[in-house]
From TrEMBL:
Chain ranges of the STAS domain: 16-112
SUPFAM superfamilies assigned to the protein according to its UniProt record, in alphabetical order: SpoIIaa-like
Residue segments, region Disordered: 111-132
UniProt xrefs under PROSITE patterns: STAS
Lineage, top ranks: Bacteria, Bacillati, Actinomycetota, Actinomycetes, Streptosporangiales
Record-given protein name: STAS domain-containing protein
Amino acid sequence: MARRRDSPDYRRTWALIALNGSLDEATVADVEREIRLLNLPESRLIVEVSDLHFLDDYGVDVLVLLAHHMRQHGGLMALVDTCGHVRRALGDSGLDDLLPLFATMAEAMRSLNDGDGDGDSDGGDDDGEGDG
């Protein structure tokens, strides 16, 4: 039986990007430039967005670009939003499958360890293990 882990699988490359302030038309060019420099084949990327105070359509687009970049290189990405600001902004976007969003770092790590990267936007327990 496979066991879920709360710590990263260190056989893979892991990276963390922490965004804060605004991710909008004025700031996305810098973030896009950094994304294009990422060379993380088959890696796991966690983007901590809890400290983003503003996210507009340009910001959502750059997160989608980052998710595509990771998948093109065999990797996976998850967002962590402990405050719920980004969760609310993305809630109406219909991008749940492309931008998996988690309430805690541990949930994101578990999902990326399992290799599916599927977010649980309502914070519920849907792991199928019947533990709750």
